[in-house]
């Protein structure tokens, strides 16, 4: 299998790629593109051989797709398959990369900081450790809308103070949109109090409370696997979830990936960083439109694209090539 390398692509100056995390999976993802681009199935075959089970079959049938240990390698592989199609069609290499939660691994593979084979094995283990860290039903996540970040943090601290478990702000996704995670009863308590404060609260259909202190035991085990994995500095800067900064050495990369399991995803700050660096175009490289829709709300982002179908891929490709001055 011949894969076009990152160094063969022209470098963008105004474009960033972002990679979605868990929740963006859908049955039948990339089926249309797979019919026209052999690199899609080739990528899934490469990843399946690394983890020892058929990721394409899971993606297309939906069987066990929502089990975290399967969801994570399937989504990672789908994102890398889309990236490879982008390169095959002559797309530019973005100026920056960022991934939401699991998507950070997609960004690191894209930046050639780690191999796809190593990454899918890591996220398969990551999913298993996360699932085993909290017994089924004892953890939950919810989106809190319409309240200031500080108010959500205050509600979480007050709920956790009683000592009957914990609840934390897990994802800062956008202004007025914070996801919380933690012990089920406390998540429900914060949801009720958020509604009393004129906010909205939506329970999320997840089996694992990600990015909260309940994940610390999983993080300790995961750190050992990270130490055994070959990692290099990214060839395109990758903005880290935990601090919205770019690592300057591999030790920082490993530390941030470990901390990511139990610390908040700083997506609001990540997108602000991109805007501060002059990014005007955002391409969401993965199934769905969650991150591109968030980007469309930002003042300095001119356009945001999803590329999970042939039509969307072609629209994004032509618009970005024109914007970057690669075609008239």
TrEMBL record:
Q: What class of enzyme is it?
A: transferase
A Pfam family recorded for this sequence: Acyl_transf_1
The residue ranges of the Malonyl-CoA:ACP transacylase (MAT) domain are 18-325
Could you list this entry's UniProt keywords, alphabetically sorted. Answer: Acyltransferase, Transferase
Q: What is its EC number?
A: 2.3.1.39
Q: Which reaction does it catalyse?
A: holo-[ACP] + malonyl-CoA = malonyl-[ACP] + CoA
What's a Gene Ontology MF term here?
Answer: [acyl-carrier-protein] S-malonyltransferase activity
Q: Which family does it belong to?
A: Belongs to the fabD family.
Protein name, entry field: Malonyl CoA-acyl carrier protein transacylase
Q: Which organism is it from?
A: Acinetobacter thutiue
Instruction: Please spell out the taxonomic lineage of the organism that makes this protein.
Output: Bacteria, Pseudomonadati, Pseudomonadota, Gammaproteobacteria, Moraxellales
């Amino acid at each position: 299998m011949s894969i076009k390398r990152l160094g063969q692509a022209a470098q963008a100056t105004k474009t960033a790629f972002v990679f979605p995390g868990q929740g963006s999976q859908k049955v039948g993802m990339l089926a249309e593109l797979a019919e026209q681009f052999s690199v899609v199935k080739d990528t899934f075959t490469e990843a399946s051989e690394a983890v020892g089970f058929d990721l394409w079959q899971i993606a297309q049938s939906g069987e066990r797709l929502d089990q975290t240990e399967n969801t994570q390698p399937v989504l990672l592989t789908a994102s890398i398959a889309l990236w490879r199609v982008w390169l095959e069609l002559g797309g530019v290499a973005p100026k920056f990369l960022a991934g939401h939660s699991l998507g950070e691994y997609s960004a690191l593979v894209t930046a050639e900081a780690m191999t796809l084979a190593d990454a899918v094995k890591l996220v398969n283990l990551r999913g298993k450790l996360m699932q085993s860290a909290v017994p089924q039903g004892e953890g939950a996540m919810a989106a809190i809308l319409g309240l200031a970040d500080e108010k959500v943090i205050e509600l979480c601290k007050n709920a956790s103070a009683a000592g009957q478990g914990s609840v934390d702000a897990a994802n800062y996704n956008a202004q007025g949109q914070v996801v919380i995670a933690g012990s089920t009863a406390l998540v429900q308590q914060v949801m009720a109090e958020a509604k009393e404060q004129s906010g909205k609260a939506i329970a999320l259909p997840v089996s694992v409370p990600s990015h909260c202190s309940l994940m610390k035991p999983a993080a300790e085990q995961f750190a050992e696997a990270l130490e055994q994995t070959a990692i290099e500095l990214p060839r395109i800067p990758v903005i880290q979830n935990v601090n919205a900064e770019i690592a300057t050495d591999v030790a920082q990369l490993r530390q941030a990936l470990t901390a990511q399991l139990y610390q908040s995803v700083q997506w609001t700050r990540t997108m602000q960083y991109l805007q501060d660096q002059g990014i005007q175009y955002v391409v969401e490289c993965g199934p769905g439109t969650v991150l591109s829709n968030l980007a469309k709300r930002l003042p300095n982002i001119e356009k945001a694209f999803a590329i999970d179908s042939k039509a969307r891929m072609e629209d994004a490709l032509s618009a970005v090539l024109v914007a970057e001055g690669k075609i008239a």
